[in-house]
Design a protein that fits this description.
Strand content: 5-15%
Distance between the termini: 24 Å
Keywords: Membrane, Transmembrane, Transmembrane helix
Protein name: M50 family metallopeptidase
Mean pLDDT: 90
Number of helices: 11
Transmembrane segments: 12-32, 88-107, 113-131, 138-155, 161-180, 209-231
InterPro entries: Peptidase_M50B-like (IPR049500)
Low-confidence stretches: 4-13
Radius of gyration: 18 Å
Structural class: mainly alpha
Pfam family, one: Peptidase_M50B
Length: 235
């Protein structure tokens, strides 16, 4: 029995597009299923808040800290000019950051650079840890980093590629769900200070414009990244 399992596993890993398809289906289930989505949403929140933080620094703002909460929400605080392009780009960056990270991961996997993706994740998580300002945030970063490190340290290159594909799919698919959740909250009047509403006040545009833009960007990233993953010859 063990020999059959090993043989099946080897055949699966040798067939990159089949393995990528299975990884995509698993990621879809993880995102759609509420029981798995609630804890794993922390990964999406980490990427989201990291996007805010990176753009805040690139736009010349001072990063004061990041907080991650047990309800999977987050907050990135930066100081600088309260209006202008820097603030707009900082507010805008959170939702697209998740999809763009998934897209970048998909490209690295298809370029046979899964190990670069994994080490890159560890570097980014370590840098983000320095900016975390609450205990739950530290725990979230350490658990996520520990899982990635375990793959880097113990998994074979083929399994590293498969896990990287799974993470890429999860970010590509999971990057869309919070946008829908935000839209529903706004329809019930429960998200007056969301990124979309703050952008609307800064730019005097409808909040729905930002939600639509984020969703379209996420869909483009999903289609492009998914195509790359499904067409790769070997994982």
């Amino acid at each position: 029995m063990d020999e059959l399992v090993r043989e099946w596993t080897a055949q699966l890993l040798d067939s990159g597009n089949v393995a990528a398809l299975i990884a995509g289906l698993i990621s879809l289930v993880l995102v759609v299923n509420r029981a798995t989505w609630l804890p794993l949403r922390n990964v999406v929140t980490i990427a989201h808040e990291g996007g805010h933080a990176v753009i805040a620094l690139l736009s010349g703002r001072k990063l004061n800290g990041i907080r991650l909460h047990s309800d999977t929400s987050g907050l990135t605080v930066s100081t600088g000019k309260a209006t202008g392009p820097g603030m707009v780009f900082t507010l805008f960056a959170g939702y697209p950051a998740v999809s763009l990270l998934g897209l970048g991961g998909a490209w690295l996997v298809t370029a046979d650079l899964a190990h670069v993706m994994l080490w890159g994740c560890l570097v980014l998580l370590a840098a983000m840890l320095l900016a975390i300002r609450n205990a739950y945030g530290v725990l979230s970063i350490l658990l996520t980093g520990g899982a990635v490190f375990a793959v880097v340290w113990f998994a074979t290159p083929a399994w590293q590629a498969l896990c990287s594909a799974l993470l890429s799919w999860f970010l590509l698919i999971g990057g869309l769900r919070p946008i829908g959740e935000l839209s529903r909250k706004r329809s019930r009047g429960r998200a007056a200070n969301s990124d979309a509403d703050q952008l609307a006040r800064l730019t005097r545009t409808p909040p729905g414009l930002w939600l639509t833009t984020w969703y379209l960007l996420g869909l483009v990233a999903l289609v492009l990244g998914g195509t790359w993953l499904l067409l790769m010859p070997q994982v």
